[in-house]
User: Fold these one by one.
Assistant:
Number 1:
Amino acid sequence: MLALLAPCGVQAALTPHAYALVIDSGIALTMNQEYTAVVSLLKAHAAKEPSNPLFMFYLMHVYQVMMIDYETTDFKREFDSCALAAEKGFLKRAASEANNPWINYYLGNIYVTQGAYELRFANYLNFSKNILKGVKQLKKAFEKDTTLYDACIYLGLFQYAKAELFGWVTFWEDDKDVAISLIEEASKKSRYSREVAEEILIGLYGHRGEREKASAAAARVKERFPGNRAVYWLMANIYLRNKQYAAAKTEFDALAPLVNQIPATYQYNYISLDTYRAKVAFELGDYGQCLALCDTVLGRQSGDERITPFKDIVRKLKKKSAERKMQP
């Protein structure tokens, strides 16, 4: 594969297009959760072109996806190292490529990604600083090139978040529609971010109660990447929030064999999935299945303190299920 993906020489203006085959392959491997393969691919190219920040940028994203997928911080050092190397590389390029919108896009993307990481751990100050810094760069990118639809995803998300924050003001609802339109456009016209845009749209459609649109977007992603765990998680939780337990069960059941592919070291997803499956089984009146799943969760060992609430939930579910099962 590496022989087929030999990179072109660095152009005067750095754009991703000369490396499209590498990037497209990396995105597909990441969406299929083939992390070892994509890390090897990008590291090999980074070694060939150490002054090119593109490969560090995409490695940063792979480590981010791994941390989210595995619910861990184990790859934080690699994430930070790649983000820093990519940022330095693009800032160095910015001095000589002031009119290159891709430099602004990549810098903005790095800052937004770092902000999103901080949000996971409620570090709101660092989150705000990075997001604002990133949006500033992304706006510059889109002002320089209004066909750079990759930037629309994050600009749309930022606009949606603002509208959500100030939702008590009626006209902000219109901004949500504009934000969704930006991300929808990115899902159709962006060169390297269509998959990300589709996944974001699933979550936003679900948040707005547009379940048919969410399901359609999920079906498109599943068709291309049938083993992608994130899509099943998103749809299952959308159905669960809306008490569509049969539909949620279908998604969770399809997700179970995919979660089993996660290294056993990372128990959080195993435990959280079976807790949700137990809840769904209880709501559907399948108390035997609920009890079996509760026992599975309680039998798992993990030092992760985030597991405690799940075990508390299944203890209550187990008690209720046992009582219901005894009833005539």
Number 2:
Amino acid sequence: MAVLCNKLSNNLWGYGILWNSAGQFIYSATLCFAVASVIAFLQIGALFWSVAVLTGTRWPTRPPSSLKSHTMKHFEEIKTLLDCSSLFYMISVGMDGRYTYINSHYAQQFAYINRSFVGQSYDISMHPDDAASCMTVSQQCFANPGQLFPNTIRKHDGKGGYIHTQWEYKAMFEDGVPVGIFCVGYNITQLVENKQHLSNANETLEKNSLTLKQIAFKQSHLIRAPLANILGLAALLEDSSPEGSEAHTLCKLMLESAMQLDKVITSIVLITQD
């Protein structure tokens, strides 16, 4: 009996089972193998867990499947909300880089580019230099399911210029398989223009400030130097002229005028320095 059980145990893929004469179960090689396998598996698992605890190892994790399984649901919900929006654009692009959906606002805003974007390449409406950033942001979306990534895109305005738009990208998955990207955006042209105007105004202020500093320097050094000479000469002439003479009176008036001019120049210099 022991020899037979041993042979059955060595037959890993067999179904060796023994009953006694009364039909009672005595031994099963398959059952013993299964039990032994479970015990070995638990022992190996315990060993790996112990090593992980001792070394502080963290096992790599995959993005939660719920993030992928719910993406299409989120897309449909947002699509329902923004389909007729008058403020936000919404589009989706398939894995082949072609439009699969656009909302009414996007269709109306860029109708001069194409009457029906669906089926067209994603880059037909944008500045050529912005296509590369779209690819980069899309790759980030697929590498980080469930996360949003921003991007600024210049769109043709139909007049030889561009409309500036701001977007948020998110990857779409169906049953864990990537199916495309959906994006929500809006027009920021006015904001960009205001920033440009502000930048131009700052440049103008800096230039004017530099001009004022140059004027202050000239007034402080180039004009006041000869004025100081005039003040000195007028004082000498006044002292050398007889008291009550016409020359003395003229020198006195010239000295007073020169001193008033010096005060005016000094005040201008102080203002330009503030």
Number 3:
Amino acid sequence: MHLSVISFEISFCEAVLQICCVIASSDAIRALSLRAELTIRSNLSISSPACPEKSCATNALPHLIGLYTQMVNDVSLAASALVVIATIVAVFQIALAAGAPWGEWAFGGQNKGALPVNLRISSIVSLLVYALQITHYGAVAEFWVSPFGIVVAPVLDWVFVVFFSLGLVMNLISRSHKERNLWAPVVAVSLGCALVIAL
């Protein structure tokens, strides 16, 4: 079988898997596709003028798989970190909504002690954002199957990049040094992880 036909069949199977949501992570699908194609090249002993004695695919296989595996691992680690961060922040918001005296660490830091009722409601509403973050990045880390399609998931990657960028700006300009010192580094780390995934 000609290699171009094999490559087409691998790409077709990859698309079907994504559409059917059989595998949550598109990175895992591409890694499997790369491994399959290079294995086929190796088995067919396809040589190149640049490697007259041995198949170039045979020489490249371990290196390319290693690079791709590292990339997938980086994305999984970044996604796992975002799940942990979102969980911690969600617990913090629940505590604020319940009346915890941490007003100086949130919402501009203008409220000492417990937050007023309107800001407690805002804390409850913000849980929707963190639930979305946990759901999305948990799927990227392959903790569970993504409920989002192959079109929506990449859009969410960049939505969160924008979200963390704005959050970083807001925390850096906060008048409360407590809020600024606590959350600016956390949001900066979140932004870095989101960029690793989006790019």
